[in-house]
Amino acid sequence: MPTINVQMFEGRTNEQKREFVKAITEATCRTLGSTPDSVDVIIQDVKREDWATGGVLWSEK
Q1: Residues ≥6 apart with Cβ < 8 Å to 37
Q2: How is domain 3-60 classified at the architecture level of CATH?
Q3: Cβ contacts of residue 49 below 8 Å, gap of 6+?
C-alpha cells in the first residue's frame, strides 16, 4: 500500500489536484504493480511564508 505525501504551494484548483492525483496513482500502479485502491495520495497545501529555500522565504521572492 503506497502512501505518497506531496507538499506544494497552496492555490491549485480542485480540478488540478484531481488530475494530479489521478496521474500519480496511474504512474504508481504502472511502476510498482499496485492497484488503484491501494494507492493513497496526501496533499499538503503550504503557504509561501511557511516555505524557504536557500534561507529565503518564498513569500519574499
Answers
A1: none
A2: 2-Layer Sandwich (3.30)
A3: 57, 58, 59
Q: What is the mean pLDDT of residues 46-57?
A: 98
Question: What local confidence, expressed as pLDDT, does residue 1 receive?
Answer: 85
- State yes or no: is 36 an active-site residue: no
Look up residue 58 and give its DSSP letter.
G
Catalytic residue among 2, 4, 20, 29: 2
Cα angle 50, 39, 7 (rounded to 5 degrees) comes to 10
Q: Is the pTM of this model over 0.90?
A: no
Each residue's pLDDT tens digit, 18-39: 999 999 999 999 999 999 999 9
